[in-house]
Design goal:
- The protein is globular.
- The chain contains 5 helices and 12 strands.
- It has a single domain, classed as NagB/RpiA/CoA transferase-like (Rossmann fold), CATH 3.40.50.
- α2 packs parallel to α4.
- It is of the alpha/beta class.
- The protein binds the ligand Nc1nc2c(c(=O)[nH]1)N(C=O)[C@@H](CNc1ccc(C(=O)N[C@@H](CCC(=O)O)C(=O)O)cc1)CN2 and adenosine-5'-triphosphate.
- The site of adenosine-5'-triphosphate has 15 residues, from α5.
């Protein structure tokens, strides 16, 4: 079977090569998904991400959340707990910096850390997904760790993956720690499992 690393390389290149206009339409396509989604409409706080490396751009989705009084937080690399994420409140005035992967994140201010228990929905970036909802990420295990309590005990935020349609692959070689997603939104459709 194809290795996880070669799958990552192939799909990361595919999404980086998407034309700017495709990226723009993809970003806009999230708004009707959000408007039609009962769980999203009822959410009080969600975690999103800021796109990098050709990921589905979330800025339109973030603006829609703010307009609908849904608080937004973003992942911040934990300063000393390796492989872990913190979630920090994100508003139009939040001071930002770049993390060691060059991804913008809120400057770490302890007063703005949000507990996972108060996040209703966690939108995850991903590199590739398959028709069973298996998710392959960038390789840090950050989201697998974050979602492990939801996977095993249904504790913590409900995850929804966001991806371009071209990130769907035939089959992902799954590892024991991988958390399959219950839902993925792409510009073309909403995937959900059980189907
Ligand atoms: N937009 C976004 N934010 C995110 C994630 C993500 O996937 N997307 N993450 C989801 O986990 C976390 C960051 N995880 C990442 C893991 C690896 C690489 C990366 O580019 N690795 C390099 C080589 C490693 C290095 O430079 O040290 C590479 O593979 O080329 C980037 C982000 C938190 N924030
Ligand atoms: N729940 C967990 N507890 C401890 N270690 C974990 C857990 N989940 C993943 N890991 C470790 O993290 C490393 C990277 O995992 P993996 O390659 O699946 O990341 P990924 O899903 O691609 O990335 P991400 O979740 O950050 O998007 C693996 O070595 C794995 O052992």
């Amino acid at each position: 079977m194809i290795t996880r690393q070669s799958l990552r390389n192939t799909v990361r290149q595919l999404r980086r090569e998407l034309p700017a206009e495709t990226q723009r339409q993809a970003a806009l396509s999230l708004v009707p998904h959000f408007e039609q989604h009962p769980l999203i409409r009822r959410a009080r706080r969600v975690a999103l991400y800021l796109a990098s490396d050709g990921e589905l751009d979330t800025r339109e989705a973030i603006a829609w959340c703010w307009q609908h009084d849904i608080a937004v937080c973003l992942p911040v690399l934990h300063p000393f707990s390796k492989g872990h994420l913190l979630f920090v409140d994100f508003t139009p005035t939040t001071p930002m910096s770049s993390n060691r992967f060059g991804i913008p994140e809120p400057e770490l201010n302890c007063q703005h850390i949000i507990s996972k228990a108060s996040i209703d929905i966690l939108f995850t970036p991903l590199v590739a997904f398959d028709q069973l909802g298996n998710r392959l990420g960038m390789g840090g295990g950050f989201y697998d760790r974050t979602l492990s309590s939801w996977h095993h005990h249904r504790l913590g935020p409900y995850p929804i993956g966001l991806a371009h349609d071209c990130q769907q692959v035939e089959q992902i070689p799954v590892e024991s720690w991988d958390v399959p997603l219950p839902e993925i939104l792409t510009p073309a459709r909403r995937w959900h499992w059980p189907a």
